[in-house]
């Protein structure tokens, strides 16, 4: 599991303009991954950058080797490969929309077939026993299923006692009071954005559940700039026309906002 291996599909091999454009001083680990691989497999904001931001708050470097980690809503499993490669975890890569056969191929090409197990799973019906995992990670997915007041305890029961859950989600600087989108974002608004909240909202939401002690609930400084850079790159470089169109929409959204309202929140809780 060498960081400098060139035998897999994820490692940066030689300098190229795309990789240079995406080499980011805040995310040195992610910058070692092949940029084309990240663009081809993206499903939204840069998943590896967000996971790299989450990692220290979640204590991923302190996990024992082969610790069991659930990557919930893993999408195309880039974060699952990152968890195995960077933190030597045994990862269950669970997702609803992406076919596990597809993820199995991608994971094998990356050289981590023995460390990452892809499964199709619905977040409200997870087929795992109580206490199965040392940690649960979710990047840009928890907002789809985790805003219900009763959800968190059904998930944290899968953690070993003292185990941690960490998520990164698109987020708001301030909660929205009315039923209308903010004026400056009206033209770009999607009803799904009502699931975005502030770090304080998430802290209260998780604390009230009684399922975890919240250890972090904070805001990624200048996260919107990262989101914009990444979306611009994906709009130009994505080989999938649908993903390129969605990236163009993100460019318009984030440009219209200029960091006034939108960004990312990181929330970490320890099973009580
Ligand atoms: C925006 S994509 C992000 C994927 C990946 N985490 C990433 O950042 O590249 C959101 C993912 O959440 C997953 N998802 C949404 N609702 C889900 C649910 N109810 N159960 C499991 N996964 C879900 C989808 O399958 C999708 O892959």
TrEMBL record:
Residues 1-29 are annotated as: Disordered. It comes from the Bacteria. Residues 1-17 have a biased composition (Low complexity). Keywords: Methyltransferase, S-adenosyl-L-methionine, Transferase. One of its GO terms (biological process) is methylation. GO terms for molecular function: methyltransferase activity. Residues 69-163 form the Methyltransferase domain. InterPro entries: Methyltransf_25, SAM-dependent_MTases_sf. This is SAM-dependent methyltransferase.
């Amino acid at each position: 599991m060498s960081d400098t291996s060139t035998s897999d599909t994820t490692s940066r091999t030689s300098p190229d303009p795309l990789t240079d454009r995406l080499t980011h001083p805040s995310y040195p680990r992610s910058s070692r991954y092949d940029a084309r691989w990240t663009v081809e497999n993206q499903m939204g904001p840069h998943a590896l950058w967000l996971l790299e931001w989450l990692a220290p708050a979640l204590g991923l470097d302190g996990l024992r080797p082969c610790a069991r980690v659930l990557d919930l809503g893993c999408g195309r499993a880039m974060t699952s490969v990152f968890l195995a490669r960077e933190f030597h975890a045994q990862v269950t890569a669970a997702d609803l929309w992406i076919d596990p056969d597809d993820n199995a191929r991608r994971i094998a090409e990356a050289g981590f077939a023995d460390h990452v197990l892809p499964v199709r799973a619905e977040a409200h019906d997870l087929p795992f026993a109580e206490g199965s995992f040392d940690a649960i990670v979710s990047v840009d997915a928890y907002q789809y299923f985790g805003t219900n007041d009763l959800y968190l305890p059904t998930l944290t029961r899968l953690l070993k006692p003292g185990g941690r859950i960490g998520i990164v989600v698109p987020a708001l600087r301030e909660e929205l009071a009315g039923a209308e989108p903010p004026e400056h974002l009206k033209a770009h608004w999607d009803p799904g954005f009502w699931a975005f909240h502030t770090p304080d909202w998430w802290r209260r939401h998780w604390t009230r559940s009684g399922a975890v002690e919240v250890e972090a609930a904070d805001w990624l400084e200048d996260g919107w700039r990262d989101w914009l850079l990444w979306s611009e790159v994906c709009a130009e470089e994505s080989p999938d026309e649908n993903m390129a169109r969605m990236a163009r929409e993100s460019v318009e959204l984030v440009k219209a906002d200029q960091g006034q309202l939108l960004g990312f929140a990181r929330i970490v809780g320890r099973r009580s």
